[in-house]
Specification:
Layout: E1 2-5, E2 14-17, E3 28-37, H1 39-46, E4 63-71, E5 83-86, H2 96-99, E6 123-126, H3 129-132, E7 134-135, H4 142-162, E8 170-174, H5 178-190, E9 193-198, H6 201-209, E10 214-217, H7 223-231, E11 235-240, H8 245-253, E12 255-263, H9 279-284, E13 288-291, H10 300-308, E14 318-323, H11 327-335, E15 342-347, E16 355-356
Parallel strand pairs: 2-16, 8-9, 8-11, 9-10, 11-12, 12-13, 14-15
Antiparallel strand pairs: 1-2, 3-4, 3-6, 3-15, 4-5, 5-7
Helix pairs in contact: 4-5
The structure holds zinc ion (2 copies).
């Protein structure tokens, strides 16, 4: 199959012909129809997530949807021809967290494109498929599905399950990238009033298009002050989609009494990831601070139903569709923060002769 392979960090991915993925008894192989390019892929490509990422050479890509072409002998719920979306946070299906419906925090977590080869290729294998795949409703296209693969579903879990956002509430969203725009669209669909915060007017304009009722450019004004003024007291919920000291702190400072902060953006690892919080504010305003990670498979049905009924439209966040060969351009846009919205690979066909290389024969997929 053709794949875009990460051989060296920060170097262009190489388009190669590699060995097709092997099929395990509990896995399925899908032909990939669409795969989003996410900032997490960029972090992996930059070499920032070593230890977590499988050894190189490796195939990134975790916002994947496609059609089942083969199912292992122990797979019960999927068969050839099924249209599926591949959840990003995957569980073993047997640990106490999975059994309680929280597969996103499984004790033996797997992540396509990180812990095993992902969707920057024509085919991929999904292990433990009965626990880690979801069938797509007929009305949901592959482009919508891949636009939902990581950032959208992460926002859906953060808005609905962790933030428990209700109609009429004020919601501040820090960061108008993929996660922030998704959170804006989802919270708006639920009936909340979203204020988008970013340093780019371009991105804020886009946030308005997907539902934000107000925007704050934090380069030009003090964001928590502006939000307290717009809301006359502070937001009920504030989401930090970025994970840096400034946005996390400003998010907490934007809250009204008894407000809920939802931390979706991940920060650096190690000591650099130890950020400061205004503890006295958190105590005397009874602010709740919650982390939100991916989305358990148990919550997919609700999200897919809202997409099928067009109450959510993840495809509207897609600003660019590209071919597998163009991933490096997408990474370049991320390095320079020049892109906006979501980029999805939809063309996996051969464009130029790939380099033949067979190291994947020895590598377990
Ligand atoms: Zn992602
Ligand atoms: Zn588990």
């Amino acid at each position: 199959m053709k794949a875009a392979v990460l051989e060296d960090f920060k170097k262009p991915l190489t388009i190669e012909t590699v060995h097709d993925p092997d099929l395990s008894p509990d896995g399925v192989i899908i032909e990939i129809k669409a795969c989003g390019v996410c900032r997490s892929d960029w972090h992996g490509w930059m070499g920032q997530w070593q230890g977590f990422l499988a050894p190189l050479p490796h195939i990134l890509g975790h916002e994947t949807s496609g059609e089942v072409v083969a199912a292992g002998k122990n797979v019960r719920n999927f068969k050839k021809g099924d249209r599926v979306i591949v959840p990003f946070t995957q569980g073993d299906g047997t640990c106490p967290h999975c059994l309680a419906g929280h597969s996103n925090v499984c004790d033996h977590q797997a992540m396509p494109g990180f812990t095993y080869n992902g969707g920057f290729a024509q085919f991929m294998q999904i292990p433990k498929a009965d626990h880690n795949l979801k069938r797509l409703p007929d009305g949901v296209h592959y482009l919508d599905a891949s636009a939902m693969g990581c950032r959208f579903m992460t926002a859906f879990h953060g808005v609905t399950s962790v933030g428990k956002i209700r109609p009429g509430e004020w919601v501040a969203v820090y960061g108008a990238g993929g996660v922030g725009l998704s959170a804006t669209q989802i919270a708006t669909a639920i009936g909340a009033n979203v204020i988008a915060v970013d340093i780019s007017d371009d991105k804020l304009d886009f946030a308005k298009k997907v539902g934000a009722v107000a925007t704050v450019n934090s380069k030009k004004e003090n964001a928590p002050e502006a939000i307290r003024e717009i809301t006359r007291g502070g937001a009920n919920v504030s989401i930090d989609a970025l994970g840096i000291q400034e946005t996390m702190l400003n998010s907490v400072l934007s809250l009204n009494k008894r407000g809920r902060h939802v931390q979706i953006g991940m920060t650096s690892f190690g000591k650099e990831g130890m950020l400061k919080l205004p503890i006295n504010d958190i105590v005397d305003k009874e602010i709740r601070f919650s982390g939100s990670f991916g989305m358990p498979i148990s919550e997919y049905a609700g999200m897919l139903q809202m997409v099928e009924k067009k109450r959510l439209q993840p495809g509207k966040l897609v600003t660019k569709t590209i071919s597998l060969e163009s991933i490096d351009d997408a990474f370049h846009d991320m390095t320079t923060f020049s892109g906006k919205g979501v980029t999805v690979i939809t063309d996996f066909e051969e464009k130029r002769p790939p380099r033949n290389y067979n190291y994947f024969e020895k590598q377990a997929v």
